[in-house]
Sequence to fold (184 residues):
Amino acid sequence: MKRAAARALAFAALSLIPTATSAASSCIPLMSLASDAMFARYPATVGTGPWRAPDASRGEAHYYRTVFRSEAKLAPNFAGHMQIVRLPCGAACAQLAFVDRSSGSVRSFREVRTVVSSLVYFTGKGADDIDRLVHRPDSRLLVIVGMRNEVESTAGATLYEWRQGKLHLIRFIPLKALCTEEKP
Fold:
């Protein structure tokens, strides 16, 4: 029953995501995907701690322990108790680690192991305000603008919901369907 309700809620949320409405506006403005209204659809309760330091003793996390120590000084930045940490992997690339600040566990997900910026394709008003990762402490929504895992067919905007300890795909919008908002 809960699973059916979650599917119905996800379907309803899909209908609220902005889409191109006419030939004159044949693209989806990036800024609409990062609007307050979008994040409000996926609320999260922001925890108050105490927060545990990331456990960088296992796997690849060990190689980035200095980054994790530095990030441990900051409050969670995603889904109430999670912290998305950007690990270096190149000039326009970020390797993502998800830290559960309640337990200290560090995880990565194969769907979004790395994100390469696609922002070089955007110019105009609003282009400088776009980040390749958009998330908030009080929301379970993660918006990724770029190419996931260095696979060209994934270039665009991908929306995920953090639910039950995993990322769940909401929608993928190809790069050719996106634009920045041009305001007169």
